[in-house]
Amino acid sequence: MSTHDTAAVDGRETAWLHDPIAVPDAQVEASARKRQSQLTKPPGSLGRLEALAQRLAGLQRRVLPRVDRVQISVFAADHGIADEGVSAFPQAVTAQMIANFAHGGAAISVMAQTLGATLEVIDLGTVVAGPPLPGVRHERIAAGTANFARAPAMTDAQLAQALHRGRAAALRAADAGVELFIGGDMGIANTSSATALACVLLGCAAATLAGPGTGLDAAGVMRKAAVIDAALARHALAPDAPLDALRSVGGFEIAALAASYVACAQRGIAVLVDGFIASAAALAATRLAPGCDAWLFYAHRSAEPGHRVLLEALQAEPLLDLGMRLGEGSGAAVAVPLLRSACALHAQMATFAEAGVADRA
């Protein structure tokens, strides 16, 4: 985190961001690489699956890694920037989708059940407050963020709360012995907040990153970019001040996602990053805590056009490219079987010696 970050958040509230990042075990990774070289296949014939298993081995400090225990934490919140007409859907949808998650009807609900993953939904603040629901943690900060076209999205205290909520989700994962963490997002107009945040951190204009989100037409995307550019000119944010950027143009769920990634890296938990929103949060996380990128895997390339720019900035090669752009952590959930396959092949294939198969001359 830059010393130039001017967000006036109480240092005691964010001091944990400076806690050390867990260091992958290079010796274990080397041992996993040696095992790969002894398996009954030509070297490299399983492509990236080999590297995934080796990297997971180093992160988990065991030659035979596993990703059986998965936690999916979906952070939900509304955004004041929706007042500027940047979304095709009304904000009431956010609370309605929280209920859909709880009742098992959303894509991420189906995927969590399919994977045997733990799913929790954290309501950080919707415009329409919903009733208590099973599987939903009601941790409201406010009824959505402020409209960042006119004022900072959050107060200092609200940013600190959002960061704390994200960290708490990672700590729950650590306490449960989770082997893989997925952060999901839900919030009408959150592609606008994610775009604005990424524009600040990358120093680029909104037209570079703005996309249709929930389904804007070309004119709507142009308007969205213009609203964001005007807001960025108003706030005059510095690229090396990620806390200030989160406070001024971010969302409660985006800040929580970024914090969850940092806290997972501190606790030694691998993270599978979802699409555009999650990657904007990952970019903020890597700026807040350099070194946490070692713990981040990128699940897929979103159809949201700005995601390619984000992935390039993160030097990330996603596992899948399926044209998805739903959010919720759904793209990451779909990629979990790839990681499980990598681990299974690495652990269960016979070596040349075990199978009695001749190795290369």
From TrEMBL:
Pathway: Nucleoside biosynthesis; alpha-ribazole biosynthesis; alpha-ribazole from 5,6-dimethylbenzimidazole: step 1/2. The active site is at E328. Catalyzes the synthesis of alpha-ribazole-5'-phosphate from nicotinate mononucleotide (NAMN) and 5,6-dimethylbenzimidazole (DMB). Keywords: Cobalamin biosynthesis, Glycosyltransferase, Transferase. Belongs to the CobT family. It catalyses: 5,6-dimethylbenzimidazole + nicotinate beta-D-ribonucleotide = alpha-ribazole 5'-phosphate + nicotinate + H(+). HAMAP family: CobT. Pfam families: DBI_PRT. This is Nicotinate-nucleotide--dimethylbenzimidazole phosphoribosyltransferase. One of its GO terms (molecular function) is nicotinate-nucleotide-dimethylbenzimidazole phosphoribosyltransferase activity. Its EC number is 2.4.2.21. InterPro entries: Nict_dMeBzImd_PRibTrfase (IPR003200), Nict_dMeBzImd_PRibTrfase_bact (IPR017846), Nict_dMeBzImd_PRibTrfase_N (IPR023195), Nict_dMeBzImd_PRibTrfase_sf (IPR036087). GO terms for biological process: cobalamin biosynthetic process.
